[in-house]
Each structure stands twice: as C-alpha cells, then as structure tokens.
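Pilot study result, target chain (157 residues):
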Amino acid sequence: GNISSEMSNILGETMLELREMREEIISLREELHAVKKRLREEEDLVRQSSDLDLDMEGFAEEEPPEQESPEKGKRSRKRDFDRISKEVEKWACNILFEEERTGNGWKEISCNNMMKKKFNKDGRTQVYLKWMADTRDEQDRESDISDKNNLDYPCIK
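Predicted structure:
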C-alpha cells in the first residue's frame, strides 16, 4: 500500500537523479577531452617557442635588478595590491551584472534534485559557469601560477 507507493516514488526520484548525473558525467568527460586536446596543442606551441628561445640565447643581456629599501618595497607592493583589487572589483561587477545571463559563453548549471530541494526550494538561485582566461597582466600574477599556457579557468556567478 502506502509504503510501497513511497518506496516507488523514492526509487523513481533516485533513477531520475542517476540519469541526470550520468548526463553530467558524459558532458564533463567531453569537456575534459577538449581541454586535454587544447593543452596538448599549447604544449606543442610552448615547445616550439622554447626551441626559438634556445636559438636566441646570448643575444639579450639581463640588467641587474634595482635594489629597493624594505620600506619602499612594502609601500610599492601595497600600491600594487590596491590597484589590482580595484581592477578585480571592476571586472567582477561587469561580469556579475551583464545583461544576458546565458549569453557571451555563460552556461546555466542546474543543481541536482536533492540539493535543489535542500537549498533552493523556491528556485530563485541560479548558477552560471564560463571558462575564462586569466586577464591579469603577467607582472600581476604570482610567479608559481604564471599562466604560460593561457589556460582557461572556471568562473562561476
């Protein structure tokens, strides 16, 4: 009777959820394959450019870096951080308040049913994803995360 009906509903929801998860996994696999392909192509370009760099060795001389006082360096670094933070805020506001929600490469991401029931019952919250390149100037990036391959990073709004 009633318990059988409830179990049937739960099983039906579970099956629907599994189908949605399967579709998401297939989509993610396709996206991962495309990213791997692009990375291989970029690695080939980097290898080609490094071969050119080896041919040019000895033609450019490096100048020794200027010595700064520690206090001057701290003020300069703070100014750089302030400048970068203003640029990031402006960039984020432009992205957040774009007219078209799904235009310009943004894809709406749908939440699985369990999460939706728990956190977004009324359906007011929407999430969008876009793969974007790091647009910061090279000198504004940390050296260990320098974007030599111009990788795209997920941006969520």
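One observation from the pilot: Strands lie at 107-109, 127-133, 152-156. A full batch analysis is planned for the follow-on phase.
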